[in-house]
Amino acid sequence: MKKILTFVITVCLIISIIGLMPVHGEEKIYDSVMRLHVIANSDSNEDQALKLCVRDAILSRSDLISADCADLEEAKERTLANLEEIQKCAKAEVERLGYSYEVEVRLCEEDYPTKTYGSLCFPSGKYLSLQVLIGEAKGENWWCVLFPPLCLDAASKAQTNEDAFIAVGLTPEQYKVITETKEPAYEARFKILEALEEAF
Q1: pTM of this prediction?
Q2: Residues sharing a CB contact under 8 Å with residue 27, sequence separation 6 or more, in sequence order
C-alpha cells in the first residue's frame, strides 16, 4: 500500500513539475531583447547626473540603434554598424557638460539580475547589451530594455505594450512569463527558466 501511495505521489509531483517547465519557448526572451547598460565614472552626484545625461543623449539617437527594426538581429546589425557614431554621441555629451572622461561603447553579452520595468519583469541571465562605460566606470549603473524600445524619454517608465513584443517574435504565452510572474504558476516557470539559463 505504501509503495502504491509513494508511486502516486511521485507521479503527481512529476506531472506538476512538467506543467511548470518552460515548454512554450520562453527561452526566446533572451534571444529577442537587447539591453542598454550605462556605467558612471563614480558614485559622486556629478558623475551620476552625467550618466543620466549620456543615457538621454544615446536614447535620443534611437535611429542609430533600434528604431523600426523588425527583430533583434536587425537591431544588432544596425547597432554594430553605428557603434562609432553612438560613441561620438556619448562623448560629445560628456564634453558638452565640461568633462574630459573617455567613453567606451561596445556590444556584448552580459549577465543581468532579475529586473522589473513597470509591470514587465525579465528573468536573470545573459542578454545582448549595448554597454556604455564612462571614465573609470566604477559608479552605479543604469539599464533598461533597448529593443524592443521600452526606454522612454524620461527613462523612468516602461512601455507595457504587448504588441511590441509580439512584433519581435514572442508569443502571447512567452509574453505572460514577463508580465505575470507574480502568479504562482508563472513565478515557478520564471525560476525554472532562470535555472536553465544559468545551467546552460
Answers
A1: 0.71
A2: 193, 196, 197
